Amino acid sequence: MVLQQQQRHLVRRGGERLDLLEDVEAVGLLLDQSLEPSRLSLDASQAGDELALVAGVRVAEVSGGGVDRHTAGQYGHARPDGSIERRGDRGSMRHMSPLERHELISPVERVLVVISHPDDGEFGAGPTIAHLSRAGARVDYVVTTDGSKGTDDPDVRPEELAATRMAEQRAAADILGVSEIVHLGYPDGYLEPTLDLRRDITRQIRRFRPDLVITQNPQRRLDHNPFIGHPDHLATGEATLASVYPAARDHLNFPELWRDEKLEPWKVRQVLLTGVEEPNLWIDVADTFDAGLRSILAHVSQVDPPTVEERMRERARIVGEPQGIGLAQAFLSIILE
What we know:
By secondary structure, the chain is of the alpha/beta class.
């Protein structure tokens, strides 16, 4: 029979209940086209294996641990009365189990920083970049957009601003010890995580062959942070992660890079995301904070010097003190080894 609203919790396995409508929607995300629940003919007695056959994908087995093990907690846990306890019912993300704490991999010989605009690297990771450079790592930048929209002056032309910001980026990078800067030149404010962008970033990863990649958080923050996420930042973060894995590591992803440009695949060992809600890596930047601050001040067209130092120092203090560090920067670390 066609799945009806009152049949949402009829498939059982291991004593637990699955919310069929929402699990069907989740399955649809994995298919080439959207999957409407009304298209499925599900009998009340069908088990999880039969659901997998109807949907065309394997549905993970659910044991007595609850529906969270099937959906990775995306939708919630089934209560005994059949209703669904949503993730939000258990409190905010701040009360979830903490992520496994990471440290920087060692050794780090090459670092690639992939950012959206001139100044994003300095605001997001300036003192950390100086720390890595002073420790002997080569650091290079990829800047995805031209930075041509970052002004409230109506008399400034986009091409003039782009040239100014490119020069400011070079000056800031010199303070931090950055080697090469690649400007991809996509229009500021209009960036999307397209295959072209992914290919361009993959090209630079294969070219620079970094142990460590630093990039921006691809997820919009809804935790009352006033900076809810510039769309260019989200696009750069998403495209960079997709470039790190799997595009940069496999010959058959963008085969023209290997075949025509002789750029061999490369496996990044660690990624650090800036601007995250839940970090799992903290770096002591007391010795390089001043260099990071000077690199931010090099972006003359973008900052107000009297306020930026106080704001950046307070942010580093707030991040560091709970970890027993005087001044720190925090990241979400992903280990790929």
